[in-house]
Design goal:
The structure is a homodimer. By secondary structure, chain A is an alpha/beta fold. Chain A has one domain: TIM Barrel (Alpha-Beta Barrel). Chain A has 16 helices and nine strands. In chain A, β8, α15 and β9 form a beta-alpha-beta unit. In chain A, α7 runs parallel beside α10. Chain A is globular, with a radius of gyration of 19 Å. At the A-B interface, α9 and α11 of A face α9 and α11 of B.
């Protein structure tokens, strides 16, 4: 049915002629056509208007030629429908003015009806799925429970999320109940995304790398696995616990995990050694390297693929593409993957 | 001569009854007696006045009972004496308004006479050494070349130092020449620190963990090793390449490295496995855990020591202590190490 099903083949670890490629934040600020919409509509208007979210999602399919679309949205829509105020200041990042501090704050969070209030995401997915017309698979996503807790407790972006981590350490039972509530909503949310048209889902644990291995096992891992186990019967699941390289081996042993995203702080050969082709690996180009001349980007990309191998691999960046990357450099990254020959 | 030489013994991997303990940023904002001086004198006055730097250095020796003093100073004094303007805005971090952009900027940097212009650091060390009266060893320090390049190119603190990294990637020859200049000054600087009274030196590579293993080998490792090899004949060298866990094995194989600092993102047992008691390990308590009740801090500290083992180990945090940590919690950390029994 899909004309280009490289991503799904890679996630099933089937033999492919070359790896699929997409870029985190590929529907974003480095694209001039995105800037046009950004100038006209504020952030949550772009996220909450299915026609706009769809248009933005499709932009890199047309201009970059990537092998997958990822729905334009934000991980903080979950705290929002659980009852928290989330503000997005352009260029400044998110702000949650009323942070979670006590059991009362956790009690107040909405769980049962939260996911159904994200109809605009499901509508955006259905519309995008239709507009894609089976050209490439569509990826849905959510933030991981620990990463969402970080924002819900800290209230904004942070280098070390010390406040959020201290909350976990000093109130482990309350943290567990908060993480479980987020998990419950996220499972419903992702299953609904899949029903609306997502072919694959990715869970972004952007801040799990701030945890020690033991604390990852307490505050991140159980919730990631609950989600993967509940969602994987419906579609393949990719986990991206950024920086948690220590967790690769154990995560790869869970059959509900199809893919694991990694950043550039681990050698492909080491990641392979730890995961033994039990899962598909995704990554791990350092986005700062997209400022290299296109000819050197090509060389580095080919080197990366040769280290990962063609099968069981999804070429991607190790983190989101940055706003100041020239479009032709991003295109050089994608093209380099597409022209790769063993 | 030293009444308490636990730190030196640990760095020589000699048998000890318990590990030595100190805390990164132990002379800092969590101490009320430091706040008194901070209210009276601005940052660079505190750094550049030997009597003040000495007083601040001694504060945690008296109030915390740590097993080592570390001179109160800043890694950015090196860019300063190399000719760059460095401003420190309280609560906002450093600002270098004229960043390094081109070969001309690198050419202008002073190398030959830079280190001798840090007389106030050497005076602070001599004075502190005298005032310590051999109670505990005195640690000198410097920023690692890659970390200093980060600030010199980026101009301020940053989550990912993408500008600095892109500078390295796109201008590798110019970066090499900048890194070499910083290295040359740093070697002179550390040898002079030792002559002035430092018993041990630590090199802080706070941002090396933002590099991939291959890029660490290009932009961080060679300069760290040059420094270690030139300085280690004069005093033991501790390297702290924060987050570069991938480098532990290779760094530990260099005989000029006595100690390696690690943060909490690696299990003690894994760090031991990779370094095989070739070096002393230092760390790796998550500073966010200092908000736990003192009784739980004690439990966690004892667990940490039992994982590292008593010998070839220096108990420390995995990053600097934060300003909002209660003094009695910091004291609980130190006391827990001192009361540890196998």
């Amino acid at each position: 049915m899909l004309k280009n099903d490289l991503l799904l083949k890679a996630l099933r670890k089937e033999k492919v002629s070359r790896p699929p490629v997409w870029m985190m934040r590929q529907a974003g600020r480095y694209l001039p056509e995105y800037q046009v919409l950004k100038a006209k509509y504020d952030f949550f208007t772009r996220v909450q208007t299915p026609e706009l979210a769809c248009e933005i999602t499709l932009q890199p399919i047309d201009s970059m030629g990537v092998d997958a679309a990822i729905i334009f949205s934000d991980i903080l829509v979950i705290p929002q429908v659980m009852g928290m105020t989330v503000l997005m200041e352009e260029g400044k990042g998110p702000l949650l003015p009323n942070t979670i501090k006590s059991a009362k704050d956790v009690d107040k969070l909405e769980v049962t009806t939260a996911a159904e209030n994200l109809k605009y995401v499901y509508d955006a997915l259905s519309l995008t799925k239709r507009e894609l017309n089976n050209r490439v698979p569509l990826i849905g996503f959510a933030g991981a429970p620990f990463t969402l807790l970080c924002y819900m407790v800290e209230g904004k972006g942070s280098k070390g999320f010390d406040k959020a981590k201290s909350f976990c350490f000093t109130q482990p039972d309350l943290s567990a109940s908060l993480l479980q509530k987020i998990t419950d909503v996220t499972i419903q949310y992702l299953i609904r995304q899949i029903k609306a048209g997502a072919d694959v889902v990715q869970i972004f644990d952007s801040w799990s790398g701030l945890l020690s291995p033991d604390d990852f096992d307490r505050f991140a891992l159980p919730y990631l696995l609950q989600i993967a186990e509940s969602v994987s019967p419906h579609a393949p699941v990719i986990l991206f616990p950024k920086g948690s390289n220590y967790a690769l081996s154990s995560l790869s042993q869970n059959k509900s995990v199809s893919g694991i995203g990694i950043d550039w702080t681990i050698r492909p050969s080491v990641a392979r050694e730890q995961t033994q082709h039990r899962v598909t690996l995704q990554g791990n180009f350092d986005p700062s390297k997209l400022l290299l001349p296109p000819s050197e980007i090509r060389k580095e990309v080919h080197h990366m693929i040769s280290e990962f191998g063609v099968n069981g691999y999804i070429a991607n960046l190790g983190h989101g593409i940055m706003p100041h990357i020239p479009v032709d450099h991003a295109k050089a990254f994608v093209d380099a993957v597409k022209e790769y020959q063993e």
